[in-house]
Each structure stands twice: as C-alpha cells, then as structure tokens.
Amino acid sequence: MEVIYTGLHQTPEQIVETAIQEDADAVGISILSGAHMTLVPRILDGLKENGADDVLVVVGGTIPREDTEELKQLGVAEVFGPGAATSEIVDFLKGKVPVS
Q1: For the chain, domain boundaries
Q2: pTM exceeding 0.85
Q3: Are the C-beta atoms of 81 and 50 separated by less than 8 Å?
Q4: CATH, domain range 25-92
Q5: Do 11 and 38 meet the contact criterion of CB atoms below 8 Å apart?
C-alpha cells in the first residue's frame, strides 16, 4: 500500500486533484472541525465530475452518529469514529481496495 499524505487544511478541490493525479484507489479524510457535511459531499461530487467516482472514500474524526448514515448514502464507504483502531481501518481498506 502506498500512502500519500497531503497535509492539513486541503480544500475539497485540492483533494480531488491529488486523487486524480496520483490515480488513487482510496481517499481517507480526517475531519475534526464538524464541517464533514459540507466538505465530504464536495469531494464526492468532485470525484464524480472528474470520472473518478470509483475511488473509495472513507472518513474519520468527530462525526456524529446521526451523520454517519447520511454520509454513507452520499457514497462514503465507511466512517471511522474517535478511537477507531488503525488495524480496523487497514483491514477495511484491504478488504475493499483491489490489490494491483
């Protein structure tokens, strides 16, 4: 697995651009600000608009339980809350992302 860390405070457009440039299989978003219902849909829309809607998107951070189902309905593959074990996230990705 190759991981590309783009740093903090990336815009949705920057995230989409990086995913496309790097031919990413998955994108992981960590949001602690509470802006997940604004930012994540913009990322999903950007991926779709650029023909990259097959990119798996996972979200982590302080996401209220009531928003988890809505994020999944929008296209997020999984939401990992505070305290999620890294091994749980890795296992999820290994099960969902094809080995190339």
Answers
A1: 25-92
A2: yes
A3: no
A4: 3.40.50.280
A5: no
